[in-house]
Specification:
Blueprint lengths: L1 H21 L1 H4 L8 H13 L1 H19 L5 H13 L8 H5 L3 H21 L7 H19 L1 H7 L6
Helix pairs in contact: 1-3, 1-4, 3-4, 3-5, 3-7, 4-5, 5-7, 7-8
């Protein structure tokens, strides 16, 4: 059963990478875009735990770096860190609460902020902006956008569509 969960996760990843690379740039506003891979990683880590989430974060990040043509290692590092940090929210007793409530959106917002800041730090060669502006423009706003896009996960997860 768990093997099929990994296969489903990787198949959803391939679909999300295609959407992330082709369609999401059209939904972005001033280079602020949601991160669909992060939403998948948070969902996976909250289902499986910190160690598996960290490994999956590295795997998804490295594959995304290779497929998207970005700086190799920047998404791998940021997604590894995000899988690790999301693991602190993992609790078998609170799995339903974390996945089927607005707590999931809060976790995506927090982890998305970390992911966006770390990824932009390693993938942007020069910093021309104020640190506070960079924090909001490259950290909070993409994470907020990702949390809004993650709303269907909460709605459909409560109806047992995903698991």
């Amino acid at each position: 059963m768990m093997t099929s969960f990994y296969i489903k996760t990787l198949l959803v990843f391939v679909l999300l990478v295609i959407i992330q690379i082709t369609l999401i740039p059209f939904l972005s506003y001033r280079q602020i875009a949601p991160d669909l891979i992060l939403i998948l990683l948070v969902f996976f880590t909250l289902n499986t735990g910190q160690l598996k989430g960290t490994i999956m974060g590295f795997t998804l990040g490295l594959l995304f770096d290779i497929i998207s043509g970005g700086v190799i290692g920047s998404a791998a590092f940021s997604k590894t860190l995000c899988g690790f940090l999301t693991g602190y929210f993992y609790n078998e007793n609170k799995m339903d609460f974390n996945l089927k409530s607005f707590m999931f959106l809060a976790i995506v917002l927090i982890i998305g902020t970390v992911d966006s800041i770390v990824y932009s730090f390693f993938s942007t060669p020069e910093f021309e902006q104020n640190l506070i502006i960079l924090f909001f423009q490259q950290g909070i706003l993409p994470a907020l956008y990702s949390a809004v896009i993650a709303l269907p996960v909460v709605v459909f997860s409560s109806k047992k569509v995903f698991v």
